[in-house]
Amino acid sequence: MAIVIAEHFTRRWQAAGLIDVETAARIVAWEATHRRPVFLWAVSGMGILALSLGIMAIVGANWEDIPGGAIGHGGASSRRCCCSGWY
């Protein structure tokens, strides 16, 4: 994908007279060797999102069964945070 974009822009820059043929070839070669794994990052991000949503769904489904001290329903620690400006 990055190579296609690099070739597209180098052709435009050549047509505008900004770069010559050798410079365009060097740019395309550099882009080909420095590709970023965008697809891998996208799949990893979606996996982390799915895992996070799954954890939140499990906690939400069992919210009533969690003891009040574990959540912090208005205990001293939550009052301390709210009153001291920690939101």
What does this entry look like structurally?
The longest helix has 24 residues, at 38-61. 72% of the residues lie in helices and 0% in strands. The two termini are 43 Å apart. The mean pLDDT is 83. By secondary structure, it is mainly α. It has helices at 2-15, 21-33, 38-61, 68-71, 76-83. 1% of the residues are buried. Helix 1 (2-15) runs antiparallel to helix 2 (21-33). It has a domain at 2-33. It is built from five helices and no strands.
Topology:
Elements: H1 2-15, H2 21-33, H3 38-61, H4 68-71, H5 76-83
Distance between the termini: 43 Å
Please state the oligomeric state of the protein chains shown: single chain
Tell me, briefly, the overall form. rod-shaped
Helix-and-strand structural type: mainly alpha
Helix content: over 70%
Low-confidence stretches: none
From the alpha-carbon coordinates, what is the Rg to the nearest angstrom?
26 Å
How many helix segments?
A: 5
Name some characteristics of this structure.
rod-shaped, single chain, 72% helix, 87 residues, mainly alpha, 5 helices
In short:
The protein has 87 residues and is mainly α.
